[in-house]
Write a sequence for this structure.
């Protein structure tokens, strides 16, 4: 994958936040946080360049780029962190003002015809059959019309973090699904299994909130 484009843009958007929360969450002093960040950037570039290009229709490129960024910082910490601290670190680092705005905008489109069609197309793509760093997903609408489940059978984050020796910290990324759904304001996120915890799949359930405008198009 080329570093220019989305990976470069994501570093520009989030690197300062990742650096800031090295202190507020992990407790590193500012100089240590700066040193970690300086080492993380070339590691991030290295990880990105080791990945294959994603297909144009693959909506999950951003997910693997976020994984590469988090991994680059984790690999340069003086001590290996706990899952609990890493969950907090990833949440605080990612949920910047622009990210909260993005979630709100996504929430306005949730359950629209465009959203549903995108889920169907993603399920049909089966991108992980050709790219192990992408995802395979089934789209499962709830019979009562209350929302839908995106059921993931292959996970690019699991693949990459296993290769980097960070597989035990994958749940820290999984937990952000709840946070982003809450920030979107349109759905309640529900889950029973994750591949990272040994489940048969990752179930990402989105149930409509009472104030959701069903059928809103965008």
């Amino acid at each position: 994958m080329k570093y220019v484009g989305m990976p470069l843009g994501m570093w520009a958007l989030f690197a300062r936040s990742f650096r800031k929360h090295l202190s507020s969450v992990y407790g590193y002093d500012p100089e240590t946080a700066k040193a970690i960040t300086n080492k993380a950037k070339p590691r991030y570039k290295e990880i990105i360049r080791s990945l294959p290009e994603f297909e144009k229709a693959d909506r999950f490129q951003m997910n693997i780029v976020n994984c590469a960024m988090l991994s680059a910082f984790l690999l340069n910490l003086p001590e290996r962190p706990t899952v609990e601290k890493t969950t907090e670190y990833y949440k605080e680092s990612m949920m910047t003002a622009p990210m909260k705005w993005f979630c709100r905008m996504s929430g306005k489109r949730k359950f629209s015809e465009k959203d549903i069609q995108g889920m169907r197309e993603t399920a049909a793509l089966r991108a992980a059959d050709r790219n192990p760093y992408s995802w395979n997903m089934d789209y499962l609408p709830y019979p009562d019309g209350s929302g839908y489940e995106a059921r993931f059978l292959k996970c690019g984050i699991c693949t990459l973090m296993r290769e980097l020796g960070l597989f035990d910290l994958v749940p820290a990324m999984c937990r952000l699904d709840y946070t982003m759904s809450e920030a979107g304001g349109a759905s309640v996120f529900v889950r029973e299994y994750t591949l990272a915890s040994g489940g048969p799949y990752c179930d990402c359930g989105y149930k409509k909130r009472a104030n959701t405008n069903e059928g809103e198009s965008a």
User: Anything to note?
Assistant: The longest helix spans residues 30-50. The two ends are 30 Å apart (CA to CA).
